[in-house]
Amino acid sequence: WRGEFPWSSLLKLHLSQTFGIRSFRPMQREIMCASLSGHDVFVLMPTGGGKSLCYQLPAVIGEGVTVVVSPLVSLIQDQVAHLEGNRVPASHLSGPYDQEHYRQTMSMARSGELKVLFITPEKIASSGALLGLLNDLRDRNMLDRFVVDEAHCVSSWGHDFRKDYIRLRCFKEMYPTVPIMALTATATARVSHDIRQQLRIPKCLVFKSSFNRPNLRYEVRKKSPKTVIDDITSLLGERFTGNDGRIQSGIIYCLSKKECEDVAGKLSRLKQRNGRKLSIRHYHAGQNHQEREETQLMWSNNEIQVIVATIAFGMGIDKPDVRFVIHYSLPKSLEGYLQESGRAGRDGRKSWCILYYNYGDSRRITFLLETGAKENNVTKEQQEHNRTALDAMRCYAEEQVQCRRVLLLNYFGEKFTKDKCRGTCDLCENNQGKSFHEKDMTEQAKSLVMVVNALRLRATRSYLIDVFRGSMAKKVLKYRDDKLQHHGAGKDLTKTEAERLLGKLLEQNVLEEQTYRQQNEFQSIGCRLLVNQCRASTVFNGMLKITLPYLST
Ligand code: ADP
Ligand code: ZN
């Protein structure tokens, strides 16, 4: 996609004239050219990577209208304001609006005056007039492309599934010739596969950029209930106090509403170095809309410095100067953690992602997930998925040796090596100069591979680890997996070690993850492990040794 296209010079022109930007970021040009050539494209880029420009610029140089679906009215308002600020004709059909706005938007869209039309997914279902407009535009060759922003909302495996997004499959079904551009900052293979299936664009071009955020510092701190508040207090008072003596902008994520209120209450007594009291507020779904909106706005304007929130606080925040994201409690998944911690440092300046961890928190979440599953009739697959996700999160928190970035990025299928971290996570920093040794795990690896072979369809991550470590859980007995030859072969390994071993085998391509369509309401994508027999044979014949790093004492 690097060659010259008829629109190459137009792209360059509008990049600087309309958007005031000098050069493209990695992949932006390629993505635009692919879409302008009529391809369906799928864009995976981390928060702050510059996704919006990928559809805004093609929209400007097109003859017709670009229709953008976005999940939140507030997100849409920001985008419309941004485009209008650059004198690009844009409007929206979302949330409540008056007749005049509606009439004007429709007529501007029909005449082709409008370049970008934002809609929420509900409107597709609820507004016959909208479908009429789309048909009319299509018939006149004026429907340039559909854009699905925050596309992970279409997947029930994503962290923000929205039922109305399922309707978006109608784009490809009803308008097969109109190209689709789907964008997300979610990185898992399973979710991205699912998105392409749900939007009916399995053969689209995929553009995935690195999810590494070099300006973020990762750190896990031990959480002891008695001292955690003091610990946060001193972080705020020292590391996160700016030269003006004022505490910088940040988010503290908590698990429950009550926890938010508690933590905010305790920290509100804090005096800053400039003598003033810290301005801090909590934010959760138990508050009314107006209250939440006000808190978010005040925080965006720096009137509130620190916000203590549940994950209800999230999507659509694009404050550039968030200097820290602290997790007071363990998130439920690395997907969630990547997303939430990623809200720090959008401006590219050094910022911190700190996680407080103790084992009790992980048990507490297991309990919450289990009771939640009972109350809400959660499917077996979803429960399994939740368990696996939490296991991975726990591994990240408990890790002692490997680099945090490596753990995080490898989990999302990105090949990333420790040398690129350059001491910007706590483990790399602390382990600098210490010596490691590689422990030979080849025998355990062989057993693990045999268990995968034996379990076949049941070889999901967490179940595999259970059987490998000799679990006698009900499911194990039911399928008589306790009778397998290698049941319990890994009983001398801790769960974390077993998971590291599994991770290593995936990294070495001895094991592979395979996704498949599940027979449930959403036909979502399941995930199981397979043996790459060719790679595995190199382990069995001694050509490939499997080792894990340990800290030498
Ligand atoms: P995302 O949606 O991927 O989180 P945005 O589209 O909001 O990211 O872009 C993040 C910031 O980067 C915005 O302020 C945007 O104007 C800026 N940006 C995007 N592309 C470029 C570019 N090529 N050069 C400079 N700044 C850019
Ligand atoms: Zn590191």
TrEMBL record:
Stretches of the chain forming a coiled coil according to its record: none
Domain Helicase ATP-binding: 32-205
Domain Helicase C-terminal: 228-387
Family membership noted in the UniProt record: Belongs to the helicase family. RecQ subfamily.
Record-given protein name: DNA 3'-5' helicase
Organism: Ostreobium quekettii
